[in-house]
Amino acid sequence: MTSTTPRQRTGWAENGGQYEYRMLTIDRSVSRHDAVRLLTDEAEHGHWELERTRLYVGGERRVWLRRKIIRVRSTL
Question: Which residues make Cβ contacts (< 8 Å) with residue 55, sequence separation at least 6?
Fold first, then answer.
């Protein structure tokens, strides 16, 4: 019987891959539809992905976005 780990990491993360993070604060006056549109634009044009979202008591939303930092190695 062989055992496997439940979550195997990708080669990118094992080789020192890093993420860049960005935190957005969305005011309570912004509708949910507008917030979704804002996050969709960030994802499509900035290559960001959703890391975490929090809704606070006052209605304020905080959203953490992340994207991979890609470093190009010299081939010379």
Answer: 61
Letter for the amino acid at 57?
Answer: V
- CA count, 13 A, side-chain hemisphere, 2: 2
Handedness of CA 41, 43, 46, 49 (dihedral sign): positive
- Find out whether 66 and 17 touch, Cβ atoms under 8 Å: no
| pLDDT, tens digit, 9 for 90 and up, residues 6-37 | 455 556 566 667 899 999 999 999 999 999 99
Amino acid identity at 53: T
Give counts: helices (H), strands (E), the chain. 2, 3
- Please write down the long-range contacts of 47-54, taking CB distance under 8 Å and 24 or more positions apart: 48/22, 51/19, 51/21
Would the pTM count as exceeding 0.85? no
CA dist 14 and 9 (Å) reads 7
